[in-house]
Recover the amino acids of this structure.
């Protein structure tokens, strides 16, 4: 039986420069790690079409996967609308339809949502929520083949990414009473990424080399390259 390893060559990075800057950095980091040994390339996104188009622009060989957390949240929106936010019926309804999505039954879920819209007992507010979620699933159907993704062992949810964002950014930048300039927080995030990626010693040696070049006009010892 094969043993699955943890993430390899994982890199953390954050910026306030916008999505294009972040995706350009992502593509730059992925390129040298690509090759015939890479069998699958996967990118998780939310259901925003503009973001999906951006990811495809910068990573055209990647398969887009709709983050299952977002799909599940849509089901909760429907359940809250149908039963009320405190009703016990919500949990089994969401669980049943979540399993349908995970089993490759996206079209069945969409059909069920459309059926509920047509019922005379469905209120206009419920009809609006049902239609919005059905349209959302319909537009993202190509990115919701969760049964196939799970067979391949692909990630389908971004919990680990959300955790990294909280650790890298929120835990440091949103402490009580903190105020930041854009330049200040950008510089801090870059230093945080250097430290979290295990590159601090290489970065420190690089700084020493640059300082010696600036002050004395001669290069210092070359910094050691990071292992990954």
């Amino acid at each position: 039986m094969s043993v699955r390893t943890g993430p390899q060559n994982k890199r953390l990075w954050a910026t306030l420069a916008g999505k294009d800057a972040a995706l350009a950095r992502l593509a730059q980091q992925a390129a040298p790690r690509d090759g015939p040994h890479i069998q699958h390339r996967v990118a998780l996104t939310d259901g925003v079409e503009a973001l999906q188009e951006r990811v495809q622009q910068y990573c055209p060989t990647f398969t887009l996967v709709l983050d299952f957390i977002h799909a599940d949240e849509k089901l909760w929106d429907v359940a809250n609308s149908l039963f009320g936010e405190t009703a016990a019926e919500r949990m089994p309804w969401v669980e049943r339809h979540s399993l349908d999505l995970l089993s490759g039954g996206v079209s069945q879920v969409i059909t069920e949502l459309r059926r509920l819209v047509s019922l005379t007992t469905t209120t206009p507010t419920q009809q609006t929520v049902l239609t919005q979620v059905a349209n959302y699933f319909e537009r993202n159907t190509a990115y919701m083949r969760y049964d196939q993704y799970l067979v391949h062992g692909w990630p389908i949810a971004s919990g680990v990414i959300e955790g990294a964002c909280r650790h890298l950014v929120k835990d440091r930048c949103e402490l009580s009473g903190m105020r930041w300039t854009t330049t200040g927080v950008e510089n801090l995030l870059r230093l945080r990424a250097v430290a979290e990626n295990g590159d601090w010693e290489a970065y420190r040696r690089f700084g020493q080399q640059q300082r010696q070049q600036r002050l004395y006009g001669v290069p210092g010892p070359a910094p050691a390259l990071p292992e990954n």
Q: What stands out?
A: The beta strands are 42-45, 63-66. The chain has a mean pLDDT of 91. Residues 73-141 form one domain.
